């Protein structure tokens, strides 16, 4: 049998270890956030130096976000949904099958920037790209949450 004073010491040790792990996790999260913010600021300055319009810069940043979502977030969702073993909705299955094509808007924005003349046509193209990327992001968001909503209906 463990004496009471040792039991309290173990509990204090566990709490201290938990606080240390939480502090380390927070420090890592802050470091990653600062690094990502620094990279984003550098990227915006570089794009503005290349004569990108503001909608072009936003379109590039949204294209990068879509590509990262397709590469990392959708693969994590796919592992979770496969663990359930249920049939996925068609839109969700398509999102998993074509997730690497989410980098395409970024490529199209770069091509449009290179081939278009400065002025209104370039600006209009970036705005069209922003609208298309926003709709694509909404579709991907819906595709990932529709199975969760379906599971929620079954559980209730």
TL;DR of this structure?
This protein is mostly helical. 85% of the residues lie in helices and 0% in strands.
Note the total helix count.
5
Mean residue pLDDT: 76
**Apparent shape:** flat
Alpha-beta classification? mainly alpha
Succession of helices and strands: HHHHH
Main sheet summary: none
Strand content: under 5%
Please report the distance between the alpha carbons of the first and last residues: 45 Å
Poorly predicted segments: 6-10
Overall number of strands: 0
What is the count of structural domains?
2
Helix share, percent: over 70%
**Radius of gyration based on Cα positions:** 23 Å
Write up this protein.
With 156 residues, this protein is mostly helical. It has two domains: 49 residues; 106 residues, no CATH class. 85% of the residues lie in helices and 0% in strands. The chain is flat and about 55 Å long. The two termini are 45 Å apart. The relative contact order is 0.11. About 3% of the residues have low confidence.
